[in-house]
Amino acid sequence: MNIQSSAGISLTALLLVASIAAGAESGKKPQLTVGPEGHGQFRTVQEAIDAAPVDGGAILHLAPGVYHEKVTINKAGIELIGSGSSPADTVITWGDSSKNTGSTFKSGTITILADRFEAENLSIINTWRQDHTAAEDRSQAVALQMDSDRAVLDRVRIVSGQDTLYADSHDCHGDLSSLCQSDRQFFNDCFIEGNVDYIFGDAKAVFNHCELHSRPGSGVMITAQSRRSPLQNSGYYMLHCRITGQDEGNKIYFGRPWRDYATVLFYDTEIVQKISPLGWSEWDGRLKTATYREYKSHGRGVEGSNRSVISPPLSEEEEKQLTPVGLLSGSDHWDPEAEVEQLRRLP
Q1: H-type alpha helices, 52-145
Q2: Contact, 273 vs 242, CB < 8 A?
Q3: Any catalytic annotation for residue 183?
Q4: Are the CB atoms for 108 and 142 separated by under 8 Å?
Q5: What pairing do the DSSP bridges indicate for beta strands 199-201 and 219-225?
Q6: Which of 132, 180, 326, 334 has minimal CB crowding within 10 Å?
Q7: Strand partners, 224
């Protein structure tokens, strides 16, 4: 029986709100369940986020299934946990693009506008490319747009075509005359798929043991990093990743500089899909100011005899710092790998 209060709110809803509030007051994140077939407290991810406390965050357990919705998260500390046996079992999907919305930055399937976002064992997909013809799909279609510090994604599939993942910082877009600490983001054991500039933005992000899967295109750029100033500490660091995809004769590049001081490092990369011998692509003469590095690449796709940027030698001390903690810890001594372990222990 769903008894209504005098205000027209169901007793079930009132009890649920009270339970969430009690959990928040206890100092523990409330744990909410979501199921697309009505097998959770909420049917949609957005409903659960809206019900979460403004402060302190919440853990959302997502039942296996497909969630056809566009999601915005503007509360800190939200965790999305797919409860299936693999990331493919729990899918959040939508099909917008810049052509449809008028802006790249309104096209995201999931948009994160708050710190300490975490996701585990799920898929985030923008279906614009697969829903339209080749002539129609040449527009930006973001799967995940993220302005979030201390963000962690573990075993997450992020799939689209152009501009798949916007890994960005919300505080480094204005005055470039002073030091700016970029948002720190950790992608662990993730699968990221796209073609043009499919990882872009100005976060300080580490991609650890990730698969970077390039879709066919006339010119495929894995990264378009956008560090704007030497005083900003942003950059993309690809550690022990794999580059895969279909080889259809298209040119694949590690990246191109979206902004003057673009910073990207590939370390110990297994290159399965053949990439251009140049490695890096020019964009308005910015290669001369970009910081592009490549070390210890291996695999059948390596053709490194004619790189457009020559990497300086890597010292032993510099190499020791090429770890998630070494790159992301900061003054607050954040340990992103410990966050991953905690995520994986959640019931």
Answers
A1: 98-101, 128-131
A2: no
A3: no
A4: yes
A5: parallel
A6: 326
A7: 200
Residue 6 has pLDDT above 50, yes or no: no
pLDDT digits (tens, 9 = 90+) for 168-207: 998 777 667 678 889 999 999 999 999 999 999 999 999 9
Q: Which sequence spans correspond to the domains of the chain? A: 64-345
Other Cβ atoms less than 10 A from the Cβ of 284: the count is: 10
Whether 268 sits among the annotated catalytic residues: the reply is no
CATH architecture of 64-345: 3 Solenoid (2.160)
**Distance of alpha carbon 210 from alpha carbon 199, whole angstroms:** 12
Q: Annotated catalytic residue: which of 137, 163, 183, 202? A: 163
Among all chains, which residue has been given the structure tokens 């490194």? Answer: 304
Helix (H, G, I), strand (E, B), or coil: what is residue 93?
Answer: strand
153 contact partners, CB below 8 Å, separation of at least 6 = 118, 119, 120, 185, 186, 187, 188, 190
pTM score, whole prediction? 0.92
Answer left, alpha or beta for residue 345, where phi above 0 means left and psi between -120 and 50 means alpha.
alpha
Residue 98 backbone dihedrals phi, psi, to 5 degrees: -65, -30
Which residue, chain included where needed, has tokens 């970077």? 212
- Longest Cα–Cα distance of the chain, Å, equals 75
**Catalytic one of 96, 115, 183, 197:** 197
Neighbours of 91 (CB within 10 A): 22
| Whole-number Å distance between alpha carbons of 220 and 275 | 9
Q: Where are the alpha helices (DSSP H) in 72-192?
A: 98-101, 128-131
Contacts of 173 (CB under 8 A, 6+ apart): 228
β partners of residue 253: 221
The tokens for 20 are 């969430």
pLDDT digits (tens, 9 = 90+) for 7-55: 444 434 444 555 565 555 556 899 999 998 888 999 999 999 999 999 9
